What does this fold into?
Amino acid sequence: MANLLWLQSGGCGGCTMSLLNAESPDLVSTLENAGINVLWHPSLSEQTGTEVKALLNQILNDEIALDIFCIEGALLRGPHGTGRYHMLGGTGIAMIEWAEKLAAKAKYTLAIGTCAAFGGVSTAGDNITDATGLQFEGELRGGLLGSDYVSQEKLPVINVSGCPVHPGWVTETLLSLVIDKPIKEDFDDFARPRLYTDQLVHHGCTRNEYYEYKASAELPGEQGCMMEHMGCLGTQAHADCNTRLWNGQGSCTRGGYACINCTAPEFEEPRHSFTETPKIAGIPVGLPTDMPKAWFVALASLSKAATPERLKHNARSEQLIYPPTLHKKNKS
It folds into this structure.
């Protein structure tokens, strides 16, 4: 039986809300079947106040083993490094102090969501709370625990990033910890599980035919590709959102909204509207992963020249106007 402790720091609680939507099987069944014992979770557990404080002290005193320590939300270091912007209720101790002490006891430490991983939305703007991630501050290693931190199993903080995370990213990562005993190579350069970051949001996107011919949408609700004009970063975003659908059927792009690359550090401040594609000399600044600018210009020119008429019209429409032409007509 593996003991799991989950604490929430600065943020909206959206990752927990997403996790509670786990299905086939549901979250509780998944944890029970994997032999994961939830010591405490703010939304799943009944204990409060002195009971939780006693539990945390038992962990620190090595009376209860801590196998998996999960933090959701950014760590708030302000004001002036005291952490008093976020005190863990009833303890008189800053959340950042609890996080540091508990992380030192954990076999595995997980940052759940982009806020906990990299700072996320909590760091946007002036960042008056001095928010940070557990082991990253944006793209830079460090964060609250420092770049040299490793858990009892000699792994850095595992960054299950996303805003919010897909429930499957969390449950599969937890299962890998208790079943497979992962190694450093199972995670990418930002310590994100490769089980979902070896994919791109672009993979499986229902707008891929429009992308291939550069038949682009220009207004919300239109069916065309959203990369050229509407800010979509699906060709750069490391996640499997369009092959591992949300709630069994959806994703941002399938809902008509551009991918904003929320699994990446510093996604929260693109320095332009999320629904705008910045360009230089008409060429999008954010090009697909691994594609040189010259290739993109050549490909785009050829693609647009070959765009079927049905795609040109359908791309600028809110619904399908022209279906694909039948390859073989009924001669009867």
Summary: Residues 200-317 form a domain with the Cytochrome-c3 Hydrogenase; Chain A, domain 2 fold (CATH 4.10.480.10). The radius of gyration is 23 Å. The chain has a mean pLDDT of 92.
